[in-house]
Amino acid sequence: MTETPLPRRARAEIDLGALRANVRTLRARVGPHVRVMAVVKADAYGHGAVRCARAALEAGADWLGTATPQEALALRAAGITGVPLMCWLWAPGDPWDRGIEAGLDMSVSGMWALAEVVEAARRTGGTARVQLKADTGLGRNGCQPADWPELVEAALKAEADGLVRVTGLWSHLACADEPRHPSIAAQLDVFRSMLDLAERAGVVPEVRHIANSAAALTLPEAHFDMVRPGIAVYGISPSPDLGTAAGLGLRPVMSLKGSVALVKRVPAGHGVGYGHHYVTEAETTLGLVPLGYADGVPRHASGRGPVLVGGTVRRVAGRVAMDQFVVDLGGEEPGAGAEAVLFGPGDRGEPTAEDWAVAADTIAYEIVTRIGARVPRVYLGE
Ligand SMILES: *Cc1c(COP(=O)(O)O)cnc(C)c1O
């Protein structure tokens, strides 16, 4: 058997062994009575939804979650069936019919959505699995406390008519990644009272849940029946304020690597790249890394983004362009084809996605999620 050659220009290595270990860590952290929904929205935060979903299930995840119905339906089409799968970001006219047929748990935040899902249940003759979302203070999606009694009552009527089954009551936290932020306790209070109202009215949910990664890792009082970790599954700390990935028992899953495409000697005073934002101080060597903002390398990290080449961390010299950027190799000549590691787990001297987040003034979520379709994903540990 011949091995498939690794993509040379660039690749994102996805360590499924690390992903499984992260899910087991989260499982152990929340205990045996709390279910774990692995969130695989946005193509599993750029890591590849189908493979990551399968690996998360192998490691003991009980549920899967996506943002859009299209993402959830794609998982079902890939053969991921027989596991509860929830999606929460619906727009008017979205495919409720197909969601019912695929057995999705569909989030409903308001009366328009309940009306559409009930209509779809009538059309298809199925029973829709519906989870009612409460806005307990995030101020984004979800039903306001003042509108909650009306939504609960309408959902119970549809349940009595056999058109829907209210499988869940849920919400989302605004500041779970800021330890002791006062909004956390306030949201949990509102959540408990909205649960209470719905359950007194007759809702018998299978699951009540509010916790993202940060809350799953640090707020046991927010676990309820299930937690919904996303970023932690991919081995990244939700926030530097909560500790490092290693400190939380997590291992980064994605490594972004490229090959140095050209090394050349240039004289002092040589401008580098568009706008000449970098000028060599002395005679030196430049290395060309064939990855750019079209691949998700943030242009905001121009002049700052770190890259490991030949055992030394270098910085992007000048601007990140669409397809490439340059590093000043300080006279070293690693040779064309040398490995350039933009980020990885961080234990072999390479930068992490968190380091890139600092360099680009953003969060590590955005770094991994935006790695583009032009970068092949290579799976390790399948
Ligand atoms: C993205 C998302 C999550 C996961 O959040 P992380 O911070 O990545 O753990 C959980 N719940 C909802 C509603 C989300 O949109």
Overview of the structural elements:
It is built from eleven helices and 19 strands. The chain has 382 residues and is of the alpha/beta class. The protein binds pyridoxal-5'-phosphate (PLP).
Approximate shape? elongated
Category by helix and strand content: alpha/beta
Distance between the termini: 17 Å
Number of helices: 11
Q: What pattern of helices and strands is seen along the backbone?
A: EHEHHEHEHEHEHEHEHEEEEEEEEEEHHE
Provide the CATH topology of the largest domain: TIM Barrel
Radius of gyration: 24 Å
Number of domains: 2
CATH H level of the largest domain: which superfamily? Answer: Alanine racemase
Largest sheet: 9 strands, mixed
Low-confidence stretches: none
Named CATH architecture of the largest domain: Alpha-Beta Barrel
Measured by DSSP, the beta-strand proportion falls in 15-25%
How many runs of DSSP E, i.e. beta strands?
19
Chain-averaged pLDDT = 97
The main sheet orders its strands as: 11-14-17-16-15-18-10-1-19
Under the CATH scheme, which class of the largest domain? Alpha Beta
Bound molecules: pyridoxal-5'-phosphate
The helical percent reads 25-40%
Short description:
With about 375 residues, this protein is of the alpha/beta class. It has 11 helices and 19 strands. The strands form 3 sheets. Strands 11-14-17-16-15-18-10-1-19 form a 9-stranded mixed sheet. The protein has an 8-stranded parallel barrel with strand order 2-3-4-5-6-7-8-9, surrounded by 6 helices. The protein has a two-stranded antiparallel ribbon with strand order 12-13.
